[in-house]
Amino acid sequence: MVEAGSSTFIQLTSLDNLFQCWLKTRKNKSQRPRVQRFGEDPLRYLVEIRNRLRARTYKFGPYKTFVVKEKKFRHVVDAPMKDRIVHWMLYRYLLPIWERRFIHDTFGNLPERGTHAAVKRLADFARAQDARYVLQLDISKYFYSVNHELLKQRVLRYVGDHDVRQLLVRLVDSFITDNQFDALFPADSMYRRTLAKGMPIGNLSSQLFANIYLNEFDHWVKETLRVRYYVRYVDDMVVLADDGAALREIGMRMIERLAADGLTVHPKKIRLAPITAGIPFLGYVIWPNHISAGRYVRGRYLRRLRQHESGGFNYSETLASYRSIFQHTGSTIYRGMA
Asked: What are phi and psi of 311, to 5 degrees?
């Protein structure tokens, strides 16, 4: 085993740190067969991971892809257990570097910046006197569109350790989007012309990379466009303003700026409307004075409840999860919004 390397890389790849990453990986997943197999002898697997990392022979993958049907069909990429531990290792290293560089209103798989925090922030904006209209944009196949060259430049910007940089490069290069979504984009689009692109949906590292990739865009929206009310949750963007015409112009500039990064806004998911019509966002609908659960969430809850009560399925955990969603609904007039 090659022990040479910087003190940072040696610490990251230590058994103690890898064990902490294993604990993070198995949290709330202890009943899954592969987690149980790994848990039968974690030290043996962690030693193997450490040795490959320090020998610079670690390879990510192979990935498995499957389709999940939620509101729509979603292609999810499943990484091996060994990779999930290394993802946690890199996430824990990168998060302190990037967290302070994100704007306040970037949300998505960040400490205390999850779904509910994003919904509460947007609800706070919706109550503002100078917010009468809302613009919503959604990036088409965001995870599958991310340009590898730009992603590497941005992820590596504040990483000085050579071994960590090389590992991050191998991670980015380990997945390339195939041609299954080509028909959704014009032949002359950046998506079709860029071969090295894409991040695996489902990777913890990809969720952080998604925010890093759009960090420059977020700062541009706030500092160049001078947008006051802006929330982004991964690839869902919301802007509020007093003037609908001004919002339309802001939207056009945002779409042009995203195109320069190789990203395409879904033409059918551009929404400009009065705030009084409600803002559908992350399963909720936000109104000027209250938050309600979206129709999709309510429908799924009722279906699961009927199936559970009939005795056909045990949906106790699922129903508890839905109930926690409803706890975040209701009036926003008398309660503070983070």
From this structure: 90, 0
Beta bridge partners of 76: 66
The pTM of this model reads 0.87
- C-alpha triplet 45, 51, 55: angle, nearest 5°: 150
Task: Yes or no: say if 100 and 197 are a contact pair by the CB < 8 Å rule.
Answer: no
Q: Which residues of the chain have pLDDT under 50?
A: 1-2, 308, 334-338
What is the spatial distance between Cα 315 and Cα 303, in angstroms, rounded to a whole number? 10
What are the respective helix, strand and coil percentages of the chain, to the nearest 5? 50, 15, 35
What is the C-alpha to C-alpha distance for residues 338 and 207, in angstroms, rounded to an integer? 22
Which tokens is 316 given? 């106790």
* DSSP codes joined into one string, 263-320: --B-GGG-EEEEGGG-EEETTEEE-SSEEEE-HHHHHHHHHHHHHHHTTS---HHHHH
pLDDT tens for each residue of 132-166: 999 999 999 999 999 999 999 999 999 999 999 99
